[in-house]
């Protein structure tokens, strides 16, 4: 209508879209200070505009509503029009992952921005009360009082222009980073983002240890047993052959020949329970890495060995250096005062000794010893010379079976076969540490997931045969044919 445009000429600001057109009474200007127009002239213009408007309505046949409700609506619209003359239009608000206030500063001239269409229509998502006139936030698909839009972590209002989301909850960016941004388990810092702005890290497939990718290249040592990387705030024990041993693995590590004897008795009983008793007393010696490598070079049997040999079944006469006394941990977490002595092997049968690398946890040492004991059993029972994958595969199966029997005992599981239950012996004294409960499945997983064609594929083929035909029938077939049953 013509009078409406007249009133707006005094201001460059517009009423926000969505307001409904209302008529108002003649007392509109009496409630607000006048603008730069002449008061008398304005009143006269408004009266004339009203008269014209009413005349237009009458000509069109429309009925003018003169009620108390209409007057209230007119007063609301009049108040909004007057405020629009003194307040700037609200800034445009974008929805998304940033929190922006729809408001103005609190200086002498600027007042909190009123939204005339907010009356009765905008409810705060935080306190569920009407927002009315004043500043509000528009984010997360809702509107909020500024003091009601709070961080889910610290419960303080979010006044920043950007915020983070986790689930359906908003967070300060700093609070979100502290609670949900992954930290490196090695350097303890937040894992940095890559060039694409994404968080990139490495993780151990079994232990779920997360670390920055560059730690794989900066010389950070790993435990030689569990393969976890050494954290900056922890010192791994340095063995004299260059290996590093974490403190948890050190807790159950077998460090000299005498400590290995109870474990040897346990595995002998395990073999007896399988009706595979080893009749001869084969010497079991714990040795350093150098002594193990030298003995392997002197062995003429020609067995295939892993890149890092941890055990060896000998058939030749030779002299090896065995660890006589457990070394102590000295300054700088280094092994000190290791006492060794030469041990001359004499051939009385097909097996002269079994050598095991020192410094490995009990469960890992036991699985290696059970593996080498199978080599000894095959030779003492007169089995023909087998292909590497067949012999190493069936030996891995026996190491795997012994390990499973230990895990049954450690977990307290009473559901076990008769053969595995016979392996309970003197080496299982006292409760095992929580870490050993995790280390056992890791060692078992290493055997099962080995990718090498000799040990890995050999184990899986032999284990499949044992599962299908049983251990005794599988061994009989190997004895007669030199191959696995299929």
UniProtKB/TrEMBL annotation:
Any Gene Ontology biological process: regulation of DNA endoreduplication
Annotated signal peptide: none
Keyword terms: LIM domain, Metal-binding, Repeat, Ubl conjugation, Zinc
Metal-binding found in the keyword field: yes
Pfam families noted in UniProt: DA1-like, LIM, UIM_2
Region: Disordered, residue numbers: 86-105
Single annotated GO MF: hydrolase activity
Domain LIM zinc-binding: 122-182
CDD domains in the record: LIM_DA1
InterPro entries: DA1-like, DA1-like_dom, UIM_dom, Znf_LIM
Annotated PANTHER family: PROTEIN DA1-RELATED 1 (PTHR24209:SF25), PROTEIN DA1-RELATED 2 (PTHR24209)
Protein name: LIM zinc-binding domain-containing protein
Organism listed in the record: Cinchona calisaya
